[in-house]
Amino acid sequence: MDFSNLDYQPIILTLKLATTTVIVLLIIGVPISWWLAHTKSRIRPIIEAVVALPLVLPPTVLGFYLLIMLGPNGWLGKPVAALTGSPLSFSFAGLVIASTLYSLPFVVQPLHTTFESIGKGPLEAAWTLGASKRDAFWTVATPLALRGYITAIVLGFAHTLGEFGVVLMVGGSIPGKTKVISIEIYDRVEIMEYTQAHILSGGLLLFSFAVLLIVYSVNRRLPINVS
Q1: Cβ distance 88 to 77 under 8 Å?
Q2: What is the spatial distance between Cα 190 and Cα 184, in angstroms, rounded to a whole number?
Q3: How far is Cα 104 from Cα 88, in angstroms, rounded to an integer?
Q4: What single DSSP character describes residue 55?
Q5: Residue 76 in 3-state DSSP?
Q6: Is residue 3 over pLDDT 90?
Q7: At residue 205, what are phi and psi to the nearest 5 degrees?
Q8: CB 3.0-4.6 Å disulfide test: which of 72, 132, 147, 227 passes with 119?
């Protein structure tokens, strides 16, 4: 296969998008997962449904509403455009927001399950020894939830790499700015450059297999210590 004509910009941009998205997902996903694992609130099923919605909602539907929201007249895009001079739609920041919402269940659900499996026993033991709730979370719950963290990071990263419908609706296909690997593959197929499409598709296929292998290996080797 000829790699000389391969455009590396979409690859670099996709890796940058996936890394940024995973960081944002951990920042917002860990508190949500922790809350879901310990709350008895009546609104818990509603929050769980909202988080899981991207799993069943067609990407184009989610992308359409995000495009409206992030556009120059959207409730989020309009004030941002007024401050920065450019809307969030068709920008890297817009891709990050879209990818975060679209990949949210792939981070929240593994962490939620892990936190729930740990239970309150180890935390209560730490509290009786004088640890604050924050200290107990970082020194007790986080090490015990290592399996969940690894699974969430790997799945969130891999899912962001393979996004198509959402990123196409929100970001379009701007080279060097919003054109990610999945869109590059689509464009190559459209102009019948199958060799380049094979290279990019094969790379994503191998990476996806490696991701699943890592997740299953981690799940076997790092059992959760339940209360």
Answers
A1: yes
A2: 10
A3: 19
A4: H
A5: coil
A6: no
A7: -65, -45
A8: 227
